[in-house]
Design goal:
Largest sheet: 5 strands, mixed
Structural class: alpha/beta
Number of domains: 2
Distance between the termini: 25 Å
CATH topology of the largest domain: UDP-n-acetylglucosamine1-carboxyvinyl-transferase, Chain
Low-confidence stretches: none
CATH superfamily of the largest domain: Enolpyruvate transferase domain
CATH architecture of the largest domain: Alpha-beta prism
Mean pLDDT: 96
Strand content: 25-35%
Radius of gyration: 21 Å
Helix content: 25-40%
Bound molecules: shikimate-3-phosphate
Number of helices: 13
Length: 441
Amino acid sequence: MANVTILPVRKVEGVIEVPGDKSISHRAVMLSSIAEGTTAISNFLMGEDCLHTIKAFKQMGIKIVHSPWSMVNSPKVIIEGKGLRGLKKPKKELYLGNSGTTMRLLLGILSGQDFECVLSGDESLSGRPMKRVAEPLALMGAKITTKDDGRKTRDEEMYPPLKIIGQYPLKAIRYKSPIASAQVKSAVLLAGLYAEGITEVEEPSLSRDHTERMLKAFSAKVKTAGLAASIEGSPLKSPGSIFVPGDISSAAFFMVAASVLGQSSVRLKNTGINDTRTGIIDILKKMGARIELSSIREEGGEPVADITVYSSRLKGVLIEGAEIPRAIDELPVLMVAAVFAEGKTVIKGAGELRVKETDRIASMVGNLKKLGADIRAEGDDVIINGTGLLRGATVDSLGDHRTAMSMVIAGLKAEGKTTVLDTACINTSFPEFENILHKLV
Ligand code: S3P
């Protein structure tokens, strides 16, 4: 089990490029596989989660060639799409490791196939709720059940391994999702490709819209209006090539480090700044951070920029409502920023954090407390009194990549030595994290 030991640093400084966006990399593999034509994906994220997506489609007969794991600087993936109905029944179950995105989005695509298959994952994924996608997909005609040994009955939820029996064509539905989740929205839209008529999903507040944007790039009949997205089943055509922007969720760790460490300046080149993902920028700015965007442009339907962050004095803020889905994966590292901000920060209604790779409210509150932070959870709210002081100690990622990286960032400004246990999980989303951090300190 790998651990990381961190000693305090005075500042972070430099120009870096974070690897490709995880959400967009997953979607690029999925849409390219079920499109007509060949797609070359550049700046693909060679993290374990996305490699599980590639493996699953290979198991379903799609020809995918990718640069070796070590070539993180020029990751390219070439996919020969077989069309909407070109997937083959896999010979054995699809094991998806830690990747919730792969499982939930794949369930959408598998709903429209006329074969049966089983999806499984690691211990963390086997404890993640799947009813949120199984329910709307069942309304469309898919049969999704927990495999016999799944943890099926706990609190009426549905946990992997799951068995899915698809159907073609599916029934179009209008679905009002009770949660703002891009994974739920995407699963329904992807199933909508296989439905007769128009499928619509509405969410309570806007979650990331990469699926909608990429479907447009693949000539799908997709429309968006406010909090709703709809799709009419029709074949996908490959755009030929896709560039994956740098992942703002990975950039977030360095944005917080640069903000809280004195005299820092970090430039994050070619980072995605899709408005449904830039909650981290808006919240940090609200806290008083100095962040500048330059070279703003669009690449394959996604906005991209160079983001420069300078150190600044932060103040505590209230984070709530529509800000939560726009910064959902960055809330753990924002808790670290809040410790170093003056005054009180309240993160309100962050219950979705409890069903991530681990319960991220519990993991971050527990770990930051071990370092001496004044932080507590009240139900699904997190309250942090910024003391500006942390003392090094041993903390545990609990197998969650974003908890692990957030605690490494906390360690950079803690007094003495901090050890983060169980850090191999960082490879799921950001294998280059430690190397890039070394370049900045
Ligand atoms: C993701 C959506 C979010 C996010 C996850 C990736 C995606 O999950 O937390 O890391 O790629 O669609 P939810 O849709 O469950 O909020």
